[in-house]
Amino acid sequence: MVEQKVTKGVFRRLMTLCLFNLEPPDLMPLSLGRDILNENDIAQASCIAAKGDEPMTITWTFHGSSISSDPGILTTPIGGRGSNLIIMRVDSRHSGQYTCTATNEAGSRSASVKLTVNGMCI
């Protein structure tokens, strides 16, 4: 912030330096609600940053690969600090580790959850 003052006929320019500590994201634990799901069940996990400065970007990966465009898997933002992952009808190909990563100017944090799907016997 720059402030200009005239004192006793002398022009002075005062500069104030403001420092801000940026806070990296702090994620709440991920959960699918149950440890094991059956085929055709719905799976849902919410990735929420309880703390951290915005703007913040939240992404999801499955075994390290982005899943933002995977058919049958929907990711939707929750305000500026969260994202939902929804799989409407799970099957065995959905079994594995899902990771949510929140990133802002101060850093990045990740949380993971494992999905196990029971198959159907025919």
In short:
The chain is mainly β and 122 residues long. The chain has no helices and eleven strands.
What do you see in this structure?
With 122 residues, the chain is mostly beta strands. It has one domain (22-118): Sandwich (Immunoglobulin-like). It is 0% helix and 55% strand. A five-stranded mixed β-sheet has the order 4-11-10-6-7, with no helix packed on it. The chain has a four-stranded antiparallel β-sheet with strand order 3-5-9-8, with no helix packed on it. It has a two-stranded antiparallel sheet with strand order 1-2. β6 (57-62) and β7 form a beta hairpin. The radius of gyration is 23 Å and the shape is rod-shaped. It starts with a strand and ends with a strand. The model has no long low-confidence stretch (mean pLDDT 87).
Helices and strands in order, then pairings?
Layout: E1 2-7, E2 10-15, E3 26-27, E4 36-38, E5 43-51, E6 57-62, E7 65-66, E8 73-78, E9 82-87, E10 96-104, E11 107-118
Parallel strand pairs: 4-11
Antiparallel strand pairs: 1-2, 3-5, 5-9, 6-7, 6-10, 8-9, 10-11
Summarize this structure as a short list of keywords or feature phrases.
122 residues, mainly beta, Immunoglobulin-like, five-stranded mixed sheet, 11 strands, rod-shaped
**What's the overall geometry?**
rod-shaped
Helix-strand pattern, N to C?
Answer: EEEEEEEEEEE
Low-confidence stretches: none
Number of helices: 0
Question: What's the end-to-end separation, in Å?
Answer: 72 Å
Most strands sheet: 5 strands, mixed
